Amino acid sequence: MKKIYLLALTALTSIVSVKAQSPCATGRYATDTFTAVTTTSGIVYGSNKNSSGITQSLTMDIYQPTGDVETARPLLILAHGGSFIGGSSTDGDMVAISNSFAKKGYVCASINYRLGFFPFDSVNAVKAVLRAVQDMKASIRFFYKDKLTSNTYKIDTNNIYIGGSSAGAITALHTAYLNKSCEINPYVNATTLATLGGMDGYSGNQCYSQNVKGVINICGALGKYGWLEAGDIPFVSLHGTIDGTVKYSQGKAAPGGIGLLYMDGSRMLKQQANVLGITNPFYTWYGADHVPYSSNVLYMDSTINFIRDFLIARLGCTNPPILAPNTPFGTATLYAYTGCTVNVTQSCSVGLFEQSENKVKFELYPNPSNSDVTLSFESQNESHKIEIFDISGKLVNSSLVSHNTFTINKNTLQTGVYFVKVTDNQGYYSVKRLLFL
Question: Using one digit for the tens of pLDDT, what is the confidence trace for 316-328?
C-alpha cells in the first residue's frame, strides 16, 4: 500500500511540475509542433442585413492542428482585406497566417464579414467599418458561446486575439478601441447608429462576452488615435512606410486611389500607446507599400515571426524573440484630441435574442417601412402574444391576438430598430428585427 501511495505521489508531483512549466516549454506556440492542419470551411457564426438590406449568412473557416489533444487553446480571429468592398476568408494571406499558427498549436478562424457600401463616400465608409466590427464581435461571441455549451473548438477564452490585414486590421482595431457611442457620433448620428444596430450589432450570439486579450494590426489604422486609452489591451503592428492605401502615419485611407476618410495609421497609434504605456511592438517595413506580404514570402515570414513573438509574450512564454522591433520611420506628432464619455449601451436578454428551439413562423411586411407594418402568422386560429422591444431591450408594446394578422402602427413608434417577439400558446417564440424609417 505504501508503494502504491508513493507512486501516486510521484505521478501527481510530475503533473504539477508540467502544469507549472511555461506553455511554450515543449515548443508549442513558439514553433511548428504540428505537421498538419485540419480546416473546416463555411462554419456559420451569425447573420445580418448587408448594405443592400438583404440578410446575409456570416461564415468562417476554422483551422486546427491535426491530432491535437489540448483542451484549452488560444484563438486567433482574423479578417481579410479588400477595402470593405471585396476579399474573402480564403484570401492567400489569411490562409498562410492561419495555417502557420495552427501548426504552432493555435486555433485560427478566418472570418467573412459584410462587404459593400454605396455611395462611395466617407459616411458610408464608416457604416461599412461598423458593420464589419459588429460581425467580428459576433464571431468572438460565437466562441464564448461554444465554450459554455458544446465546447467543440476547445478554446481558452482568456486568450482570444483579433486581427487582420488592411481592412481586416481596421476592423480589429475598431472592435477593440472604438468602445463609446459618442466617439462615432461625429461620423454617424445617434439615430443612424441605432438603425445600424448600435455599437455591438445583432449579427449573432447575443449576450455572450466579446472580450479579447490583444490585437494584430497588419497595415491598419484607427479613426482617431485618441480612441486608444490608458488601460486598453496591447496590440502588435506591422506597416510599410510608403503605404498609399492606408497611410503609415496619418492621412486619407484611399482604396483604389480614392481618398475617403482621414485615419491615424500604425505610426500614430505607436506614439499614443507609448504615451499611455500600452504594450505595442511595432515593425516598420522601410520603403514598402500596402500589404507587401501578400506577394512576397520574405515579408510574410517577417509578419508571422513578429506576430509569433507578440503572442508568446502574451502567453507568458520565455522563448527568445525571432524578430526584434525596429526603429519607426520619422516622427509622429499627436494633434489635439478631446475625448468623450457618453456611451449608449445595448441591454442584453437571452430570452429576447436567442430563438427557442421550435420557432413560431411569422412574417413582417414591408420591412423596412415608413408606414404601418403587417404581421402575419402561418398557423390559423391560434392565439399569439406579440411583444415589441426597442433597441435597448425595453418593452414598448404588448398585445394578445387570436387571428392570423396584426398591424403594427408606425405612428406609435419612433424611427429606429425594434425587435418583434411572437410567442404561441405553447410557449415557443421567435424574434425578428423591424426597422422603421
Answer: 999 999 999 999 9
Report CA-CA distances (Å) from 96 to 20, 169, 222: 32, 16, 25
Q: Cell 481592412 appears where?
A: 167
Contacts of 330 (CB under 8 A, 6+ apart): 241, 249, 267
Q: 8: part of which helix (H) or strand (E)?
A: helix 2-20
Do residues 375 and 432 make contact, with C-beta atoms less than 8 angstroms apart?
Answer: no
3 state DSSP class of 267: helix
Name the CA radius of gyration of the chain, rounded: 24
* Predicted TM-score (pTM) of this structure: 0.80
Provide the mean pLDDT of the chain. 89
- C-alpha cell at position 15: 503533473
The candidate with the shortest Cα–Cα distance to 308, out of 292, 284, 324, is 324
Check residue 42 and give left, alpha or beta (phi > 0: left; psi -120 to 50: alpha): left
Neighbour tally for 36: CB within 10 Å: 10
Taking the C-alpha atoms of residue 387 and residue 421, their distance in angstroms, rounded to an integer, is 5
- CA distances, 206 to each of 44, 47, 185, 196 (Å): 15, 12, 23, 16
Q: Which three cell numbers stand for residue 207?
A: 449576450
* Grid cell digits, residue 381: 386560429
Q: How much is the pLDDT for 120?
A: 82
Q: Please name the residue that has the C-alpha cell 414591408.
A: 366
Task: Strand 235-240: give its sheet, edge to edge.
Answer: 37-49, 55-65, 107-111, 73-79, 155-165, 214-218, 235-240, 282-285
Cα–Cα distance, 210 to 77 (Å, whole number): 12
| 74-113 residue pLDDT tens | 999 999 999 999 999 999 999 999 999 999 999 999 999 9
- pLDDT (tens digit per residue) in 302-313: 999 999 999 999
Continuous H helices in 80-121: 92-103
Could you tell me where the beta strands, DSSP code E, fall in 21-115?
Answer: 37-49, 55-65, 73-79, 107-111
Summarised one tens digit per residue, pLDDT across range 48-59 is 999 999 999 999
Residue indicated by cell numbers 500607446: 273
Q: Are strands 214-218 and 155-165 parallel, antiparallel or unpaired?
A: parallel
The one-letter amino acid code at 8 reads: A
- Residues in contact with 178: Cβ distance below 8 Å, sequence separation at least 6, in sequence order: 133, 184, 199, 222, 223, 227
Residue 373: how many other CB atoms lie within 10 Å: 21
Cβ atoms within 10 Å of 94's Cβ, excluding its own: 25
